[in-house]
Amino acid sequence: MTLYPTLVASTISPEDILKFLIFALVCIGLLGLGRWSSRLGSDRYEDAGSEVRISNSRPVGQQEESPRVWAPGAEEIAASFPYDPLLGKIRIKKFFFEKVDAIPGPDDPSVFADELHVQLYDPDSGHWWWQSYFVATPQGLARILREKAWKYLHAPQILVLPRYDLEEIRRAVVSRIMADHEFFNDKEQAEEESL
Fold it and tell me: Is the residue at 64 inside a domain?
């Protein structure tokens, strides 16, 4: 039995001890780096999957951070619209733009261009369908042409308004729905000026 510890001791070279120490230091370094990186977010979130704020302390003189206000969703915007007798039983179920929140809208109402998607529902037939429109202001169109260096812009269903106004956009959409669908052919339609 006394021979075994001597045999083991004689087979371990100083280079092996050095390699073991380097390996142990690297492991300790990685462990420390992992703990340090996990603490980077610990004052902001309780854990990586949580969005609950756990730190309410702020440095002296720093203003209190206001909570993020989320824009209403497509269903909430559609539900906020007043009943429109022109649509009859047809209901707007979803109303949203691709890039800009419908509420509050763009920062500059006179410079706007975005794709609008509207989901419609007919309760009599149970039929759902989507309508899409490219909604823009003249300055918004000019900005797109300038930024993309395009010579022209083509959009199949386009609504151009002088400025971003959600209620005016809703009215224009209702007018286009009435003009485009057979369902409304029997009904009296308000005259639209065409180009």
Answer: no
